[in-house]
Amino acid sequence: MSNVSVISGKSSEELARKLSKKIKANLVKSSVRVFPDGESKITLSGKISKKKSIVVQSIYPPVDTNLLQALSLISKARETSSQVIAVIPYLGYARQDREFLSGEIVTMKVLAKLFKGAGASKIIAVDIHSTIGFKYFTIKSQNVTAIPNLVKYFKKLSLKNPLIVSPDQGGKERAKEFAKEFGLEYIALHKKRDKKNGKVQIKTKNADEVIGRDLILVDDMISTGGSIINATQFLKKQKCRRVYVACTHALLMNDAEKKIRKSGVTKIVSANTIPGKTSVVDVSDTIAKAIV
Questions:
Q1: Is 116 among the catalytic positions?
Q2: For the chain, what percent of residues have pLDDT higher than 70?
Q3: Would you list the DSSP string of 49-71?
Q4: Which domains does the chain carry?
Q5: What tens digit of pLDDT does each residue of 208-255 get?
């Protein structure tokens, strides 16, 4: 792509580099200096295109810092480029897409104004938690999925009679899509929360189909890993074989990776929307298709 620059935010350096190679764009790097009071000062190095800029910056923890840096990069790009595409691989605040309790602020509404105000022409996210949040955006918005990329990775593994499993009913559609792409069957577990103590128990009946099989637990994101741990412990009792975890966004807060492995998971596989040890699946080709 001639006359296009990819501006790399600090939270998505590797992904920005891969994307710039895929679309043959000029890479503009950013360096960040954080002052003792927590303020960030961003400096760009490279030439920004007059025609089109693509800002790549994931909004994972520290969420507010990465959000402000994303908006700052968009604003700077807009000073030069006539079109600015904001690629936000992991879009923080996507779970705050409606007023669940009276008085709650719908933060996705605020984000919609901020991205437009900063100068973004379009926003692209990967496996956004819920597309409901995009209804507040007046600029173009697009959600792309990492499922085909994740499936491709798992197809290379030597799995024994694999079965796709959703840890709860809420992720049923995702597991169904994953299974369809893979050409496999899927099941979704039933969870029940105790109203008195808040503890979650899995109430799935007839889980005989997991016996002796390798399982792939599928989720869009893993934060503390509670759902995955509960599901793994339940499935191991049902005498399944190995349990793998496939997710797009591995936040893995509060030592979650260690806890998940301890529960009996063989391997956690995630996309590079959030860089880390588990992010072995590259989604730059999927993002590139959305840009073209």
A1: no
A2: 96
A3: PSSEEEEE----SSHHHHHHHHH
A4: 4-144+282-291 (3.40.50.2020), 147-272 (3.40.50.2020)
A5: 889 999 999 999 999 999 999 999 999 999 999 999 999 999 999 999
Residue 192: both structure tokens together: 């029940």
Number of residues written out for the chain: 292
Cα 228 from chain centroid (whole Å): 16
| Candidate from 27-41, 60-74, 155-169, 190-204 with smallest mean pLDDT | 190-204
Q: Which of 10, 18, 22, 191 is catalytic?
A: 191
What are phi and psi for residue 39, nearest 5 degrees? -70, 145
Predicted TM-score (pTM) of this structure: 0.94
Q: How many CB atoms lie within 10 A of CB 196?
A: 6
d(CA 174, CA 114): 29
62 cis-preceded (ω within 30 degrees of 0): yes
Average pLDDT score over the chain: 95
Report phi then psi at 183, rounded to 5. Answer: 80, 35
Residue 200: pLDDT above 90? no
Instruction: Tell me the C-alpha distance between 106 and 94, whole Å.
Output: 10
23 and 288 Cβ atoms separated by less than 8 Å: yes
